[in-house]
Amino acid sequence: MTTCDLSECSDALKNGKIIVYPTDTLYALGADIYNEAAVKKIFLLKNRPFSQPLPVAVSSVAEMEKLAYTTIVSKRLAQCFLPGALTLVLKKKASGIDVVTAGMDTIAIRIPANPIALELLSKVGPLTVTSANRHGDTPIPKIAMIRKQFQPSDIAVYLDCGRLMGKPSTIVDCTTKKPLILREGVITQKEIEDAIVDG
Predict the structure, then answer these.
(1) How distant is the alpha carbon of residue 187 from its chain centre?
(2) Which of 42, 38, 13 lies closest to 29, judged by CA?
(3) 107 near 53, Cβ under 8 Å?
(4) Per-residue pLDDT tens for 145-187?
(5) Spatial separation of the C-alpha atoms in residues 165 and 42, rounded to whole Å
(6) Measuring CA to CA, which of 2, 49, 138, 147 is 20 to 30 A from 43?
(7) Would you state the pLDDT for residue 199?
(8) CA 143, CA 66: separation in Å to the nearest integer?
(9) CA-angle at 94, arms to 42 and 136, nearest 5°
(10) What is the C-alpha to C-alpha distance for residues 13 and 27, in angstroms, rounded to an integer?
């Protein structure tokens, strides 16, 4: 991946376009979370109900804290597993992203352990990080297959990093009194529980 590729992505995102970019688990559909029209297009491209919030990717814990209120437990989990395949559900701090969060007062955030994703996110800011497939379908591992799901005008840039076959991230709700695992993915329930206890 070249600087030129990332610049092309940056320009596309600034102009309200959609990109496909790699994470440490799967390919993701990326839009500027503050561009409401672009975010709505993500929902439409995936046939995803607007009532189901989109997860967000950021480049660092500092960026996470601009969007959400962190807790002792969430900071501990971030320290243990991020960057990595962990999504934290936190109380939302940022405004102007109601479409992303489906009007909820929470936001799901992760920091992907992929150097290209991290470089892109540090360059352009927070992006949606929903898998690049139709809602309810199995995630697609290759760019050539993803292209077949969409029209040429749907996606401005594809960042191709070969086959990505990672399991989805583990999602932990840190807004409850006791952290709740909403989806077990790469990181196991035991690993989450051990990290909390050790902290």
Answers:
(1) 16
(2) 42
(3) yes
(4) 999 999 999 999 999 999 998 788 999 999 998 899 999 999 9
(5) 22
(6) 2
(7) 57
(8) 32
(9) 30
(10) 16
First to last CA, the chain: 38
Burial 125-137 (b: 16+ CB within 10 A, else e): bbbbbbbbbeeee
pLDDT by residue (tens digit) across 102-112? 999 999 999 99
Q: Which domains does the chain have, with CATH numbers?
A: 3-198 (3.90.870.10)
Angle at 138 between CA 134 and CA 142, to 5 degrees: 85
Which residue shows structure tokens 């960057």? Answer: 83
**Phi, psi torsion values for 129, nearest 5 degrees:** -140, 35
* Per-residue three-class SS string for the chain: CCHHHHHHHHHHHHCCCCEEEECCCCEEEECECCCHHHHHHHHHHHCCCCCCCCCEECCCHHHHHHHEECCHHHHHHHHHHCCCCEEEEEEECCCCCCCCCCCCCEEEEECCCCHHHHHHHHHHCCEECEECCCCCCCCCCCHHHHHCCCCCCCCCEECCCCCCCCCCCEEEECCCCCCEEEECCCCCHHHHHHHHHHC
Identify the pLDDT of residue 4. Answer: 60
CA atoms of 169 and 89, how far apart (whole Å)? 12
C-alpha 47/C-alpha 6 separation (Å) is 27
Token pair recorded at residue 104: 């909820």
- Weakly modelled stretches of the chain, pLDDT under 50: 1
Query: Is residue 44 exposed (0-12), middle (13-18) or buried (19+ Cβ within 10 Å)?
Result: exposed
